[in-house]
Structure formats: C-alpha cells, structure tokens
Amino acid sequence: MGAALAACALVAGACGSSTKAGTSSTTASSTTGASSNGPWGWPGNSTQGWLAPGEPDVNHDGKVVIGVISPGDTHDHGYYESFVDEANAFAKQQGWTVITVDKVPDSNAAQAARNMCQQHPDMVAIAASELKDAIPVASEAVCKDTVWYVAGGQGVNQTPYFVQTNDIESQDGYAAGVAAGLLMKAKGTTKAGFLTGPQASFTTDFEKAWEAGIKSQVPNETTVVTYTGDFNDSAKAVEAFQAMKSQGVGIVYPYLGGATFAVAAQANQANIPVLTPGTDNCSVPSPKFAISVIFSPGDYFAAALTPFKDGKLRVGTALVFHMGVDPVPTVKICSPTGDQAQVLAQTIHEIGTGQIRTDQITGLNDYSGYVPSGS
Fold first, then answer.
1. CA 1 to each of CA 97, 205, 250, 296, 302: distance values in angstroms, whole numbers, following the listed order
2. Measured between alpha carbons, how far is residue 374 from residues 90, 353, 355, 370 in Å?
3. Over 50: is that where the pLDDT of 117 sits?
C-alpha cells in the first residue's frame, strides 16, 4: 500500500527532506507571516508543520469524529467512493465515527465546511480539490481544534491549517497516455477522446500530458477534447461521448467522477476502449474498462489517517506521491497483449528514475523541486 510507504513523510522527524526510492516527499508550508505557534497555538514550525495536541481526539471530548465533505457521489463505485470507504474502514477499526456530506457543489463548499465544523469533528477531510473554496474556513473560529486534510491538492496553496496529499499530473497523465497509445496502435486508430468536467488547470494539464503520452506511441494522433462543466452529470457526459463517437474516436478517457460509469457503458456498446480514473476497475464486470489509471484518494487518505491515529499528523505540510516510486499512482492495462504490459511497466520505471522527465516533455514543469533518484 502507498500509505505504508508514504506515512513517514507526514510525521515530524521521520523522514528527511530529500526523496528516496519507495518513499514520498513532503514540503512544509511556505506561508509568510505564519505564527511560530501555528494554528490555534499548536506547537511546531513552518519547516516541520504543526501538531495538534491530543490527536486523534483533537477537541478533547472523549471521542474521535471524522467529517468528510465530497463534491461527488460517495456511492459512485470509483474515485469519490474510494475516499469515504477508506475513512469508514479505518474508523471502524478504531471505534471512530465518520460523518459524510456528499454531492456538495463548489458554490456551497464554504458553508458546507462551516456546517461540518459545527458538529465538532476532530478532522475535516475535503475529498477533492474542487472544493478548495472551503479551505479558508479552516482558519475560522468555528473550526478551532480541528485538523484539516485535503485530497488531491493540485493548485491548492498550502497554509498552516491543513495537510494535503497529491501527485504529479504530468506523470499520471503521460503514463495513462502511453497505455492508451499502445491500445490505439494495436487497433490501428489515431483519434482519441478526452471527456471531463470543468475547464480548469488540473483538467487541461492532465489532458496535455495524456496526449503527449499517446503521441509517444502514435505520433500522428489527434485528440477530441470536451469539457461538460460537471464531473457528475451523466446526461451531459453521455451526450458529449455520443458527439465524440460520431467523430470517430477509437478510445475515450472519461476523466470524470460520478458520470464515469455512464460513459463507460456507452463506450462498451460502441466497442470503444475506455479508461477509468482514480481506482482499479479492471475486475468490474460491467461496464468493462480497458485501462485503469490508479490514483485512488483512499490510498492517499490512509497515509494521513495512520499518523493521525498515532498522534503524529502535522498540518502545514504536503505529501506528494510519485509514479514509478510509490505503489500509487500507477497505470494498468486490464487485458494486455503482446509486449504492452512490458512497455508500460518500463515507461513507469523510467518515469520513476528520471530517464523520462514528464515535466519537460509536456512543458508543464510541475516537479516543483522534485528530483527523481536516477536524475
């Protein structure tokens, strides 16, 4: 599990600042003017982060409560469900309570966070960075004595009030593109479809990396890109897919949340291979997926819950997972043929060692000081 390898990075003093093979890196808050006493007078500093006394019972009321706020359906059989499943499984083992609020629109993120804090949880967990407007609420008095966690924090500015986990988009997107390109090459197709929700930096950057990965295998490839504005609206997503199908796409990536399975079902009917975002759905009987792009938020969340249980989770820090170094993120072709599995495995390995620099290939320059071990 990625959590077991990466949890040390969230524990003060357990890991150094450099990244080694098999571990993940941590960067502390660089917020200027942050008090040396940290949020709510918690001890720590801007290098190691700040520790809430009494973790996991942060508010000292004799019980441990985790409040999860999700932008998507936590019964979507995919990205959002994996997050709350990890929380529920972990909490059950510890005798904790989980409160979940899902399908929260971006416009209601801040109010949903205030409402959650009024229930006095020990941790507020934001399931995806789409709800980044909730994050400033962490510093409001209503959320005093609450540890905050943010999943998938690309584009989220670190502050002393929360801990985040994320990965490197250019790595995930490029490896997913290589897998797609291998299937396209075998099928003799040159047109791919990328279908997602809002047109935001984290979706446009991923698409750019995905297309670069495809072109490494199919140089004359073209991509049809559609932004529906909503990760979870199945009707919009299916309509967009049908338009893509009419344009002759030979593979489709629904980079979506709750609408993923609806698009996959339509792609199955059209005999068009489909990728799944976030979780490993290769064994799902229906709909069928050709490629699983695995960056499960549940795996990342476990990396925070373990030190939280042990009273060692520090806010003001970020944990970054690396392709080819940590078990997640990774990419898997569900039914590979010929040398497809070997080519993909070698690509992932070379991303991990730095032989392939996806930040440079894609022009995204998103390594942020990270230096792969073989570079």
1. 24, 27, 33, 11, 9
2. 35, 4, 7, 12
3. yes
Main-chain dihedrals φ then ψ at residue 236, nearest 5 degrees: -65, -40
Contact at 8 Å (CB) between 144 and 211? no
- Report helix, strand or coil for 211: helix
| % of the chain beyond a pLDDT of 70 | 88
| Measured distance CA(252)–CA(250) in Å, rounded | 7
Q: Is 326 exposed, middle or buried (CB count within 10 Å of its CB: 0-12, 13-18, 19+)? A: buried
Q: Which of 288, 282, 332, 289 is nearest to 178 (CA)?
A: 332
Reference 10, options 299, 296, 370, 316; nearest CA is 316
Helices (H), the chain: 2-6, 79-94, 109-117, 169-187, 201-215, 234-246, 260-269, 297-309, 340-353, 358-362
- The whole-angstrom separation of Cα 261 and Cα 225 is 18
Q: Characterize the bridge pairing of strands 330-333 and 251-255.
A: unpaired
pTM of the predicted model as reported, rounded to 2 decimal places: 0.80
DSSP annotation of 280 reads -
Strand order across the beta sheet in which 317-321 lies: 25-28, 317-321, 162-167, 147-151, 123-126, 65-69, 97-101
Whole-angstrom CA distances from 277 to 149, 202, 294 are: 21, 14, 7
Which pLDDT belongs to residue 78? 67
Contact 125, 68 (CB under 8 A): yes
Q: Which domains can be identified in the chain, with CATH numbers?
A: 2-168+297-321 (3.40.50.2300), 169-295+330-362 (3.40.50.2300)
Q: Which of 310, 304, 373 has its CA nearest to residue 2? A: 304
